[in-house]
What does this fold into?
Amino acid sequence: MASLPAIFVSHGAPDLLLHETPSRAFLKQLGQHLEPPRAILIISAHWLTQVPTVSTAAQVTTIHDFWGFPAELYAMHYIAPGAPELATQVKTLLATAGFETATHPSRGLDHGAWEPLVLMYPEAGIPVMQLSLQPAQGTHYHYRLGQAIAPLRQAGVLILASGSATHNLRAFGAYSLNAKPPDWAKQFDDWLATAIAQNDVDALLDYRSQAPYAVQNHPSDEHLLPLFVALGAGGEAPRGTELHRSFTYGAFSMAAYAFS
It folds into this structure.
């Protein structure tokens, strides 16, 4: 079985599914351009815990973890089979790498997980499990987390990390859906794309010191942490490939990258 890349996607605002945008069109075709995975391990910026926690549910449910959006979104569900055997593998790999771990028997998919999957694999037939992030930890920790689960790529598992290349919620609502991005968001997005293209892992891990407007684009780390899991899962010397770049609501970069 061919090795799959580790993928980072930006999920943007919760109404991603309701608007015809370049990022929605990209996600809709992304699954068709990948080898069919036997299972999906998804990491979302919206499941945050003290230690890495794996979902072991036999059937995943849909969490509508947002407020004030159109009723149409709350009627959407992604009912896929769970992947408890994969969850056991993930837990073993993490424990072997020295991570304390936990399990959650009934955790569903938050919108950072199910919304990209609705577009990528709408038939909901591929087993899926979710792995949590640790917001109190930093980029190096999540890079090591990704390295620990990297062997799964050779076993037909798609490692899908869902966050946001830029994420300043204070700017949400200040711009229309298709607004031109402000300079502070574009400069950060350009820096990120360049660092990934140059495979500059050290610069990426130190992004808060090296990237322009880093703190303005990420007042807190959690929406960029999935990128570092995908980066680590790319292997010993990960090579990054740009898959997509666009913006929604001005300040939200919808960039996506593959690492292998």
About this structure: Residues 183-197 form the longest helix (15 residues). The chain has one domain: 6-259. The beta strands are 6-10, 39-48, 53-55, 102-104, 128-133, 157-163, 240-244, 247-248, 252-253, 256-259. The chain is about 30% helix and 20% strand.
